[in-house]
Amino acid sequence: MSASEDVRRVSGEIETLRGELGTLVAELDRRRHEALDLGLQVRRHPAVVAVVAGLAAIAVGGLIAFAVRSRRERRRPTVRAREARRALARLLEHPERVASSEPSLPGKVARALAVAAASTLAKRLVERAVQPARPARARA
Predict the structure, then answer these.
(1) Is this prediction's pTM over 0.85?
(2) Which pLDDT value is given to residue 74?
């Protein structure tokens, strides 16, 4: 075989592979569109959608019922009296924790980070406001 025949053969193989790759990419794109088409998935799998919707409704209903019940429970006078007694007992055991004047280390770090971020933001806003407008470039 001569060099030109090798080049033609390799070029043909490349074109064949390019065509096959194009076909595969087109198929993957079609499948992606189908997978992300919510209406199509609902039509194809109505039982799964119904089960998931039912479970979601049960979960939301259960969470709401639990919240309502616990709120009612906390409002009962006996529960409120018990919580007040516990709070008073904690106060008497550790009076130094009631009005701590020294902030915690994480609180100090969070405040320092917030101040640094706010000052950087303020500096940039002032620089933008004070910076003169740039003239428009002339088109060539």
Answers:
(1) no
(2) 85
Q: Which whole number is the average pLDDT over 114-136?
A: 85
| 40 touches 49 (CB < 8 A) | no
**Count, residues in the chain:** 140
C-alpha–C-alpha distance, residues 109 and 116, integer Å: 11
Q: Please, which residues have CB within 8 angstroms of residue 1's CB and are 6 or more apart in sequence?
A: 9
Give the Cα separation of 91 and 88 in Å (integer).
Answer: 5
| Cα angle 29, 25, 38; round to 5 | 10
Q: Given the structure tokens 């980070």, which residue do they identify?
A: 113
Give ∠ CA 91-76-95 in degrees, rounded to 5: 5
Tens of pLDDT, residues 40-58: 999 999 999 999 999 999 9
- What's the confidence (pLDDT) of residue 136? 58
Helices within 37-104 (DSSP H only):
38-44, 46-75, 77-93
